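Example record

The entry below shows one chain as it appears in the dataset: sequence first, then structure tokens.
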Amino acid sequence: MSETRDAGEAAQGLWAASAATPPFEAPALSGERSVEVAVVGGGFTGLSVALHLAERGVSVALVEAQEFGHGASGRNGGQVNPGLKYGEAALAARFGDAGRGLYRLGQEAPDFLGETIAAKRLQCDWQQPGLIRLAHNGKALERLRADAATLRAQGVAAVDLDAAAVAARVGSRRYPGGLYDPRGASVQPLDLARELARAAHAAGAALFAGTPATALAQRAGRWQLDTPGGRLTARRVVVATNAYSDALVPRLARSLLPVNSFQVATAPLDARHATVLPGGETVYDSRRLVLYFRRSPDGRLVLGGRASFSSAQTQRADAPDYGVLETVLRGIFPVLDDLPITHRWTGLVGITPDFLPHYHALDDGLHVLVGFNGRGVALSHRLGAHLAAMLAGDDVAPALPAMPLRPFPLHRFRAPVLNLGMRWNHLLDRFGL
């Protein structure tokens, strides 16, 4: 059974149960307020935008329907990983200079977040022991070898790992090899979201919790953002609601697939489990249905993945997806057979058709930044800061290619279609394709 103590902790699992930072106490919006930029969404992206706008002297107000970090920002695995799904050449071929800029932001995102945490003294258990990417079969290992060579050519001290090195550094003999990337890091994500809210507020951003945005309309050249208790009037609006998007911006919710990433955490490891991630690296593997795992700040093994493609915002603690992950965990780490699972939780990941973050410049002054595809811990902070610099009028190189807002085909049938896709990808993974 879970050690969590109430419904709020159960929703965010280990991170709520172990958070050292209390929730940032912000009021609900009441009355009317006028600002230069209104931000919708109190996760990493929205808070990063608000922080970096406020630091530039731009008046900004942010509204969050729940508490800061309630969604994916407070539920993710806490892995601070570099990069995007595609390399620089592919992004440049599609987007030109903006594609090169997007690639650069993805590569520098972990260091950017680390520098922000240090500069703002954010207490969130930041560690940077590196990232291990594992190959689940021989063909995947060939691709990782090519990736490592590319990284080394770009000046990253990536290291090829054979099966023996993986066994020594990960504690599992299941994988034929992998690569080590020194840029990888980890955080306690809910603490990070709460600390980021404090930093944004200290910089001058007005933050409002328990304040859902109910309507958005443009009148007389300004945007009016309505909430149950008040209204924001702004020249520009940033919507950063990701997988928790609703009908506020027409067609936005249908342009994303909200997919649950399920996670489990064991009881704390002890001396009997010293072979499991002794260096504390973050890890993910190469299969299409990605598995990721790490040690938590309090010494547990946290493992996550997509056992199904459910898009429901609430899940029962006995959902079969957790059983799938627990079986996988024991398979990777037989030495952990004696450790109970103490926490189970999930949150929604925003998936886009091309597996890239999407920036939409819509009606005059309306900006949307969503779709981090499970890579958002570092990337959302870096892209949010870049968008803030754009809005403040800084002279920045193009790095957020504007994309049309297109609904996913067959979005209303996403659950059965996605689960068929999951089964197909599982077969491809099994046969090494």
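Notes for this example: Residues 390 and 396 are 7 Å apart (CA to CA). The first strand starts at residue 31 and ends at 40.
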